Amino acid sequence: MTQEREGEVTRSFVSLATALALGADIVELLTRLTTDCAHLLDVASAGLVLGDQRGVLHVMAASSDHARELELFQIQRLEGPCQDCYRSGAPVSAPDLSGSGRWPRFARAAERHGFSSVHAVPMRLRTRTLGALGLFGTRPGRLNAEDLNLAQALADVASVALVQHDTGVDSPSVSLQLQTALNARVVVEQAKGLLAYSGRTSPQAAFQLLRSYAGEHQQQLSTVAGWVVHGDLPARVVLEHASARPERDDEGGSGGEGGPAAARG
Amino acid sequence: MLRGRPARILTAVSAAPGPDGVPPRFVRACARALPVTGVALSLTSAAGDLGGLVAACGGNAAALEDLQFDLGEGPCLDASRSREPVLVADLARDGRERWPVLAAEAPRAGIAAVFAYPLQVGPLRLGVLGLHRDRPGGLEEAVHAEALQFAAAAVALLLHLHSRLPATGAARGPVDRAGTAAAAPPAAAGIVLADDRAVVHQATGVVSASAGVSTGTALLLLRARAYAEGRGVRALAQDVVAARTWPTGRGHR
User: Fold this and answer.
1) How many of the other CB atoms lie within 10 Å of CB of B231?
2) Which of residues B121 and A234 earns the better pLDDT score?
3) Most A-contacting residue of B146, B149, B202 (CB-CB within 10 A), to test interface
4) Statement to judge: residues A115 and A199 lie in one domain
């Protein structure tokens, strides 16, 4: 491994690990993983599929939005290297699709889109296979052992991300943006109710207060709502902030003011 | 591009004319194709709790979701948590031990049989497809098989809606997020919810403030009170938010 490449690989893992620790969106994280694969490995394109309870594969992420790649993954619902890899739980390699009669439909589609080789590594969780990471090349050829190992290591990171997601909502793990958005809405509505009660006002008016507080402190609405709901930011601070707000906010924006720690003191 | 029966289901649903979105059309197509009274498509949290109704049609599908949310129990919740379909041919008879309150209440709302299919991909929980009948009776093998096809189509549908999200990264900066969230209709990411129980969450905040308890405890208090008063959490929540009832303390009244 060249020094430059080694550095890139390290950066990729660090970036994935950081995203994992910060609670990134799972689809965003998987997309980043496929982009890294396409960049780091000797392939033109990468994509990731997961099986549902019936074993039907769903495309979760791809290094490019091009329909041509997506179609290649979709078609593998019926046949193809990702499908075989998912079923067997073992890596599948097709260094030259033109000479392979194994997946006629898939090979035709791949060829039509200019791909000549394909490799798939499983996403594993102990004895279970969750899905597969598919790698497409525009030239025939094997992936060398180093690349295959790296692909498997990246796939393992993705599996860890998925399993962390599974442990629940309380831990700072990755989540589907769908659920993050769902949780954000819940916490914003709760904060509206809490502020409305504390400030003898309507939920609509409470919402405006919350929104202006978040805007002025450059925070996400749901973040501020979370502080309010968990008692890290007293309702009175948000309410007084609004009533005391001057025509021009000369003293605002000092940075620390909006944080829960500052508000407590 | 999706192949097989689930693909044909989604293609037919997308092609069908109608002023409303794909999810409402999907649940109607499901109710037409299967011998059931009603269909509900719900999102779940990562832990498997009911998170919001995407679409429902027929019979008392929305009421079934509400009941399960209010009581914190039911076949849809169990299906989501256990990751297995939960099929209850006679709720009053077969559900007595597992969901005592629901088994007593649901039949009065015209819900006699419930068939709940978890919607998941890999280890990720997305939602539940809940079917019900107004009279007891199990699903035939072929009907169950077709329901599984609709569940697979529902997974693809939710993933598709999820993938139509605004671009991530810079566009999701703090200010933008605050602004978008402020203007947005009830939605979870790209999915517009038919019902997100906003009023229940607001009431949870009210009770949390007035009783000085966490929102988790506040929701339990709301549930307990609604149960004691023999009405739904939503109805009670509306009164709480309008300050027509209950919380007393340093805020209102």
Assistant:
1) 13
2) A234
3) B202
4) no
Domain assignment present for residue A47? The answer is yes
End-to-end CA distance of chain A: 53
CB-count exposure of residue A215 (10 Å: 0-12, 13-18, 19+): middle
Q: Do A165 and B165 touch (CB under 8 A)?
A: no
- Look up tokens 């009175």; give the residue: A236
Q: Total domain count for chain A? A: 2
Give A182→chain B minimum CA distance, Å: 5
3-state secondary structure of A56: coil
| Contact assignment for B121 to A60 by CB distance below 8 Å | yes
Q: How far apart are CA A62 and CA A181, in angstroms?
A: 22
Range of the domain at A204: 177-264
**What residues have CB less than 8 Å from A44, skipping those under 6 apart?**
A38, A115, A136, A137, A138
pLDDT(B47) > 80: no
Query: Which B residues in the span 15-34 are in contact with A, Cβ-Cβ below 8 Å?
Result: none
- Cα–Cα distance measured from residue A62 to residue A47, given in angstroms and rounded to the nearest whole number: 4
Collect all residues of chain A within an 8 Å Cβ-Cβ radius of residue B4. 77-78
Phi, psi of B128 (to 5 degrees): -140, 140
Same domain? For A47 and A157 the reply is: yes
Question: Which of B35, B61, B73 is CA-nearest to residue B129?
Answer: B61
Least confident of A134-143, A190-199, A225-234, B1-10: B1-10
Q: Are A32 and A7 found together in one domain? A: yes
A136 and A249 together in one domain:
no
**Residues B46/B79, Cβ–Cβ less than 8 Å:** no
Fill in the DSSP letter of residue B194. Answer: S
pLDDT of residue A225: 94
Residue with tokens 């403030």: B209
β-strands B191-192, B187-188: how paired? antiparallel
C-alpha torsion sign, points B243, B247, B249, B250: negative
Neighbours of B53 (CB within 10 A): 25
Q: What is the average per-residue pLDDT within A225-242? A: 91
| pLDDT tens, position by position, A31-67 | 788 888 888 888 888 988 888 777 778 777 888 765 4
- A68 lies in the same domain as A128: yes
Same domain, A188 and A106: no
Provide, as residue numbers in chain A, all residues whose Cβ is less than 8 Å from the Cβ of B203.
193
By Cβ distance, the residue of B45, B126, B210 closest to A169 is: B45
Contacts of B150 (CB under 8 A, 6+ apart): B6, B9, B30, B33, B34, B117, B129
Q: Which residue(s) pair with B216 in the sheet?
A: none
Residue B63 has which token pair?
Answer: 């009421």
| Each residue's pLDDT tens digit, B57-111 | 998 888 899 899 998 899 999 999 998 999 999 999 999 999 999 999 999 899 9
pTM of this structure: 0.68
